[in-house]
């Protein structure tokens, strides 16, 4: 379970997140919808530990993440697919997928098993494994970024606008992967940001709205964002 207690963040002295309070339970798929510039990316980056000096507390199953530097958050089972994907171009797709697990010191066999499981969740990655991280289309890059987040994210997976700009066929494959992910890891909490609520269809079990850096718990407002 992820708990956000009065989380705030500023960029260049400007408040970007303001008093965010939320409880994201295990097994939930939570959408955070909000217009461009609402603070979605900043919220995920704050959870990942990339916004040092933010206010409030972030707890994962009761553990305060303040003491866990960003580079160690994958060790806690947190996976992140950033908006801009960032695959290492000099690595193959397989190396990109293995990377977060290797960084946290997982053994070869454990990483092999994690990769096999990830490929059952995102089977479209199988034929891409040997390709360069630089040779992917935008949509393929999003699938690979999902796979990489799944590799590390045993407890929490954060996906930043995964459906934005995704062709319909890939969007269907992506949704099917999220469905399988939930079946394979029923306890996992998945957070998906989107500026267009309708792209998420019926995937989220809960929808939160981010408005100018503040979180609003209101389904009607969520439905109005598109
Ligand atoms: N590096 C930066 N320097 C200055 N302001 C920034 C920076 N990054 C973000 N901001 C500002 O912070 C606010 C929130 O940005 P953020 O990227 O978190 O929003 P978002 O909801 O992810 O937007 P989008 O839908 O465009 O991805 C915006 O007003 C943005 O202009
Ligand atoms: Mg963003």
TrEMBL record:
<keyword id="KW-0547">Nucleotide-binding</keyword>
<keyword id="KW-0813">Transport</keyword>
<feature type="domain" description="ABC transporter">
    <location>
        <begin position="2"/>
        <end position="225"/>
    </location>
</feature>
<dbReference type="InterPro" id="IPR003439">
    <property type="entry name" value="ABC_transporter-like_ATP-bd"/>
</dbReference>
<keyword id="KW-0067">ATP-binding</keyword>
<dbReference type="Pfam" id="PF00005">
    <property type="entry name" value="ABC_tran"/>
</dbReference>
<keyword id="KW-0472">Membrane</keyword>
<comment type="similarity">
    <text>Belongs to the ABC transporter superfamily.</text>
</comment>
<protein>
    <submittedName>
        <fullName>ATP-binding cassette domain-containing protein</fullName>
    </submittedName>
</protein>
<keyword id="KW-0029">Amino-acid transport</keyword>
<dbReference type="GO" id="GO:0005524">
    <property type="term" value="F:ATP binding"/>
</dbReference>
<keyword id="KW-1003">Cell membrane</keyword>
<dbReference type="InterPro" id="IPR052156">
    <property type="entry name" value="BCAA_Transport_ATP-bd_LivF"/>
</dbReference>
<dbReference type="InterPro" id="IPR003593">
    <property type="entry name" value="AAA+_ATPase"/>
</dbReference>
<dbReference type="InterPro" id="IPR027417">
    <property type="entry name" value="P-loop_NTPase"/>
</dbReference>
């Amino acid at each position: 379970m992820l708990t956000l207690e009065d989380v705030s963040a500023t960029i260049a002295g400007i408040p970007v997140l303001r008093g965010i309070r939320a409880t994201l339970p295990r097994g939930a798929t939570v959408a955070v919808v909000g217009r461009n510039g609402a603070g979605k990316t900043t919220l995920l980056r704050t959870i990942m530990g990339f916004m040092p000096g933010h206010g409030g507390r972030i707890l994962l199953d009761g553990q305060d993440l303040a003491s866990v530097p960003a580079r160690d958050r994958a060790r806690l089972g947190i996976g992140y697919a950033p908006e801009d994907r960032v695959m290492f171009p000099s690595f193959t797709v397989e190396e990109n997928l293995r990377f977060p697990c290797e960084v946290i010191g997982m053994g070869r066999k454990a990483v092999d098993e994690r990769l096999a499981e990830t490929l059952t969740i995102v089977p479209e990655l199988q034929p891409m494994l040997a390709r360069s991280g630089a040779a992917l289309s935008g949509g393929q890059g999003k699938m690979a970024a999902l796979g990489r987040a799944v590799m590390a994210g045993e407890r929490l997976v954060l996906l930043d606008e995964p459906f934005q700009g995704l062709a319909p066929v890939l969007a269907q494959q992506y949704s099917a992967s999220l469905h399988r992910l939930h079946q394979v890891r029923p306890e996992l909490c998945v957070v998906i940001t989107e500026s267009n609520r309708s792209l998420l269809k019926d995937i989220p079990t809960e929808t939160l709205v981010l408005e100018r850096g503040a979180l609003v718990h209101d389904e009607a407002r969520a439905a109005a964002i598109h």
